[in-house]
Structures are given as C-alpha cells and as structure tokens.
Amino acid sequence: MSKQYCERNFKVSRRGFLKGCTLAATALGLSESMVPKLVEAAASPTRPPVVWLHFQECTGCTESLLRASHPDIGRLILDIISLDYHETVMAAAGHQAEKSLHDTITKHDGKFICVVEGAIPTKDGGIYCKIADRTAMEILADVGPRAAAVIAIGTCASYGGIQAADPNPTGAVGVQDLLKGTPIINVPGCPPNPVSFLGTVLHYFTFKKLPRTDQLGRPLFAYGRKIHDHCERRPHFDEGRFAEQFGDEGHRQGYCLYKVGCKGPGTFSNCPAIRFNDVGVWPVSVGHGCVGCTEPGFWDTMGPFYGRLPNVTVPGAGGGIVADAGSAGKKILGVTAAAVGIHAAVGVGRKLVQGKKNDEQN
Q1: 256 has which bridge partners?
Q2: Is the pTM of this model over 0.70?
C-alpha cells in the first residue's frame, strides 16, 4: 500500500476533525464554548493507551466504528488514542500480539483504558471463549483491575447480548457481572452509535472522569431519553396514524411503526437525534421499527420483534389525540347540556310552586 494511498484515505482534515469534536460536544450536551476544551484534549500529544479486548461477539461494534467519519477510525486510533492492542486491526499476531498486551498493561498499569467488545462465557470454567490458551474470564480478570476505566462497547459486553439469550448455553454475561472495583461504563447497542462511543472517550479525556450514567450504567447524554419521545414519527402515534402492516398505505405514508413491532416506546437511546452512517438515517427513518437493542436482555424481553410492545397506551383509545379531544368535547357538551337541563327544570319547578302559592292566596 503506497504512502500516498494511505495519506489520501486515512488522513482527516483539520475541518473534519473540528466537526467531529463539535458533533461529540453536541451529543454530550455541552455548550459551544466547551468545544475548544474537547479539541485540546483530543489533540493532546500524550495519547492515552487503550487495550481493546474481543470476546464472544461478531465484531460488529468495531465495524460500526470503522465506518465512522467524524473523525474516522484512523484519526481516532492514530491521533486521539494509542491503540496498543486490538486483535482485529493490529498488525501483530500470535505471540507478538500477546507480548504487546503484556507490555502495555505492565508499562501503563492503572493508567490505560480497557475497551471490551463481546460477552464473557462463564459456564464450565469459561472454556467457550479462549485466546492464547486463556479463557475470556481469565483475561478480563487479569486486564480489567489494572485499567483506569473500562468501556463495555455493545450490548454483548454490557449485558451479555444474544449469547445470553435464553437458554444461554455458555453462561454468557456482561463485564459488570464479573469485574468489580474498576469504573465501568456501558455503551450498549447492536451496534452502538460510534458518536456515543466517541463522546464517552472524549468526555473521559477532557474531564478525567466518565460521564454520568443511568441505573444501567449507560451515559445519560446518549441514553437519557426514550426513542419514542424524540422520534420523527411520534406525531403520527399521537394522532392515531399507524402502519398496520409492512407495505400498506400507512407504511408508505411514513406513519408510526408501533403496530408492526417498533420498540421505541420502551427503549432508551439517542438514535433519532444522532443517526447513523453520516447520511442522516436510522432504522425507523427507513421504515423498520426499533428492536430495542440498547436494553438488557432485548432478545428475550423485546420479542417477538414484529409484535406490539405491551402496556403502551395509544391516545384516544387508539384513535389519537384528535379523537380523544373530540370525545372530551362531547363529554363536556353532555355535562353542560345536563347542567342547563337541571337548571331549567329547577326554574320550572320554582314557577309551579310559586303559581300554586298565588292560587291559594287568591
């Protein structure tokens, strides 16, 4: 591969780099004045060492990061962090790769970031995932406690993912189920949005701490709101307009996908705001419902994927807020009419009583 080819394909322009930091700042909910601090941290000549461990997974999380463009993975690897160990993209293999892992955690003991991709099998002593004759459990127990912080990228590393789906034959679990005493943050998704990962990394490098999380260990800046609350199809849900099946008129019109299985009402993520692939799309925007992949155990709890999520109330008993408003209006009119009728009846009664008294006096 020629030097010119490498530079043309992997070098990120200054403008693109700044755009990436600005995007991360926006995702983090930081003001514009904080962008220079993120840029300063990202451009620091002291690149924090990172060890990236792969366990039970499909490498989809790394793939999604490789497709990121703000900045691209080359810039992320070479300019922001020092990626000292990553089995998928590193040139070393075999004993050289294992030596690189050993040297990194020894030299930077307590100072490096550990990124974990994939679940960890625990059944039968963890024999269902072994690297260099060590189980994933042993590697995590060796590397994790020596890291400054651990980022569990993807739903597999966060909560076990599909490997932990019932009946979970390998006893797969997430990092937080095994590792104690080291700060851990979960960036779930199948795959997670690269901007959520980038924002977590930049937040740590800028403020020297992990971002605030919810009760499931997810950064609030990325998982603080339900997809349903900021989905572009939400007005259709509120007004009772739904796709009843894929390909029908409602689906072609871009109506709400709840009735064809969208799990947006029960899923927390920034997908509608950040989107994917640098072209402004995400599953719901192209006609497929959310499958709830950022939630623990979504393979079991969100299924069937094309069935309706229970316990979701559609306004107006399914007719939408317009029907709800119409129903409320009719009730108000009914109550008003009843009040007028009662008032009139009382008036008539009083007149009858008064007339009777007058007759008796005459």
Answers
A1: 242
A2: yes
256 is in an annotated binding site: yes
User: Partners of 82 in the beta sheet?
Assistant: 49
Distance (Å, rounded) from C-alpha 195 to C-alpha 197?
5
Could you tell me how far CA 273 lies from the centroid of its own chain?
Answer: 11
Residue 61 among known ligand-binding residues: yes
10 Å Cβ neighbour count for 230? Answer: 14
- Would you give per-residue pLDDT tens digits along the chain (362 residues)? 344 444 444 556 676 677 777 777 777 777 777 778 878 877 777 888 999 999 999 999 998 888 776 667 556 666 778 889 998 888 889 999 999 999 999 999 999 999 999 999 999 999 999 999 999 999 999 999 999 999 999 999 999 999 999 999 999 999 999 999 999 999 999 999 888 998 898 899 889 999 999 999 999 999 999 999 999 999 999 999 999 999 999 999 999 999 999 999 999 999 999 888 777 899 999 999 999 999 999 999 998 999 999 999 988 776 676 666 555 555 555 555 565 566 666 666 666 666 666 666 65
303, 275, 294, 305: which is closest to 156 by C-alpha? 294
203 labelled as ligand-binding? no
Please indicate if the annotation marks 290 as binding a ligand.
yes
| 129 labeled part of a ligand binding site | no
State the burial class of residue 47 (Cβ atoms within 10 Å of its Cβ: 0-12, 13-18, 19+). Answer: middle
Look at residues 132, 93, 89, 105 and name the one whose alpha carbon lies nearest to residue 50: 105
293 annotated binding-site participant: yes
